[in-house]
Amino acid sequence: MSTPLFPFDNRYAQLDGLSVPWQPATVPAPRWLRFNHALAEELGLDAARLASDEGLAVLAGNRVPEGAQPVAQAYAGHQFGGFSPQLGDGRALLLGEILDLQGQRRDIAFKGSGRTPFSRGGDGKAAVGPVLREYLISEAMQALGIPTTRTLAAIATGETISRERALPGAILTRVAASHIRVGSFQFFAARRDTERLRVLADHAIERHDRDLLGITERGDRYLALLDAVAARQAKLIALWMSVGFIHGVMNTDNMTISGETIDYGPCAFLEAYDPETVFSSIDSQGRYAFGNQPGIAQWNLARLAEALLPLIDEDSERAVVKATEVLERFPDRFSQHWLNLHRAKLGLRAGGADGADGEADRALANDLLRLMHEHRVDFTLGFRRLSAVLRGRPDELRALWGDDTAALGDWLVRWQARAQASGEPAAEIADHMDATNPVYIPRNHLVENALDAAVEAGDLKPFERLLAIVTDPYTERSADALAALPGTPEQTRGYRTFCGT
Ligand code: AMP
Ligand code: MG
User: Fold this and answer.
1) CA distances from 462 to 126, 466, 472 (A)
2) 490: confidence class by pLDDT, cuts 50, 70, 90
3) Which terminal Cβ of the chain has fewer Cβ within 10 Å, N or C?
4) Which residues pair with 21 in a beta bridge?
């Protein structure tokens, strides 16, 4: 066929020494698990052709499409605080880049396509369960308006891979604004390879921060790159915090320069509100607990800053002073986003800058969270059902709080006085809140059920149903009432997530 399946226009593969040319492994019996038609169309691709046998062969790694230049990307990273100078794409492969319908450059990459020079002891493969989890959660994040890598396809390979037990293998096709990570910079910084560090930084600027190209002083431009990444991450983490998302493995190799959420491993959503919540089986110290995420993001940005120092100023002390200034702004940046998002959740009109009003609104939000913590109230429903109070149905909210609703009652009085001070009709405020506070998030027990059915019985119906629910998160549907509820204590007690590597 003459037109290529993907109109590749590859840049990263051209950058000398940043990646290694490599080919995906072939697999015995590829079979569709899910194809993302809507995303294919958004990318300007021929969705029907991609969904055919030709697309299946390509997305399984059995046929390298015309124009692709598959490479494994080099990166390093701090994992749980300890530095590994060499990680890299051990089970991923960047096929190439395309321009989407908006003219945005997007990476098309595989996850689970076999060993690469970066695989170390690993097999380079992925299992059906974790691949479907990434599909589900990444598309749920997208529907919640949170920057994220996307999933174009999930394909069963027909292989059996060996983990704690034998599992069916799969390949995921990931679409990202780029796969440049904090750890990508750390890789070259650790080798004191300032030339490649600069090539990478220039590429990142061209890709994500073209407006910085106008800064003629190069050091200032790289400092501005750090600043831009910090700004995106402050917003991203505030968004995570606004929906109860716990990434679970915020290592520096899992933090993007683009500001997209990446690497859905042991991630999960909070149910009963508790900032110390940790689900990941490997996070025994609680380093990546829900409430630690802003601090960890800042710590990761400090690692990015360290890596960029030689580019920021040839005088290392001056470079440190400049980078530190940027890093120190992170808490305020995060706080401002957090405040704006929580104001929206509470139906409060943002009053401009974070002045006296801001402090009162922040206290209002924090007091609610403290009460939710004390009463183990479900984070998602605790916010969602506030609007029912404005609609004259306070019992829907009270039902979440058990018998002891006196403190809630006091808080509701304060909140309603503040919310209605604007003079906006209660029903309109309630409508805004319902467009902000989701009814449906990927509930942990439902995610597990859906993945179990797919893995153990080859039954994709629960997955399909849950995907449909979580990608339409704001409209309440009576048919999906059960999917809005947290798991029972038996279902949620001791819930653990795994990297699945
Ligand atoms: P992750 O924990 O998924 O972010 O991965 C951390 C590092 O381990 C990255 O360099 C991955 O490429 C590598 N890795 C994870 N799983 C595998 C695997 N099954 N085979 C080879 N490398 C892997
Ligand atoms: Mg990773």
Assistant:
1) 21, 6, 16
2) confident
3) N
4) 71
Residue pair 95/4 in contact (Cβ under 8 Å)? The answer is no
Residue corresponding to tokens 């009709």:
425
Residue 123 Cβ contacting ligand 1 at under 6 Å? yes
Q: Cα 254 to chain center, whole Å?
A: 10
Distance CA 280, CA 262 (A): 16
CA dist., res. 154 & res. 459, Å (int): 14
pLDDT in tens, 445-482: 999 999 999 999 999 999 999 999 999 999 999 999 99
Q: What is the pLDDT of residues 188-199, one digit of tens each?
A: 999 999 999 999
361 is catalytic: no
Short-list 371, 479, 448, 454, CA closest to 155: 454
Structure tokens at 13: 């593969």
Rounded distance between C-alpha atoms, residue 273 and residue 376, angstroms: 6
Structure tokens at 450: 């859906």
Backbone φ and ψ for 107, nearest 5 degrees, come out as: -80, 140
Tell me what pLDDT residue 1 has.
54
Mean pLDDT lowest among 239-243, 477-481, 489-493: 489-493
**H-type helices in 266-355, by residue range?**
293-312, 316-328, 330-345
Instruction: Give the distance (Å) from ligand 1 centre to CA of residue 501.
Output: 6
pTM: 0.97
Q: 232-249: string of b/e by CB count within 10 Å (b at 16+)? A: bbbbbbbbbbbbbbbbbb
Residue 149, helix vs strand vs coil: coil
**Which positions ≥6 away from 301 have C-beta within 8 Å?**
182, 226, 229, 230, 233, 327, 330
Q: Is 108 in the pocket of ligand 1 (CB under 6 A)?
A: no
Closest atom of ligand 1 relative to the 124 alpha carbon: 20
CB count, 10 Å around CB of 373?
15
CB atoms within 10 A of CB 121: 5
pLDDT exceeds 60 at position 389: yes
Q: How confident is the model at residue 130 (pLDDT cuts 50, 70, 90)?
A: very high
Rounded to whole angstroms, the Cα distance separating 353 from 374 reads 31
Q: What's the whole-number mean pLDDT along residues 236-262?
A: 98
Q: What is the CA radius of gyration of the chain?
A: 23
Residue bearing the CA closest to ligand 1, atom 14: 90
Residue nearest to atom 7 of ligand 1 (CA): 87
- Give the Å distance between the CA of 250 and the centre of ligand 1: 14
Q: Whose CA is nearest to atom 2 of ligand 1?
A: 499
**Alpha-carbon separation of residue 333 from 245, 329, 415 (angstroms):** 19, 6, 25
pLDDT, residue 355, reads 59
Ligand 1 in reach of 442 Cβ (< 6 A): no
- Lookup: tokens for 399: 């039902």
| Domain chopping of the chain, boundaries | 12-182, 348-434
Owner of token pair 């431009």: 221
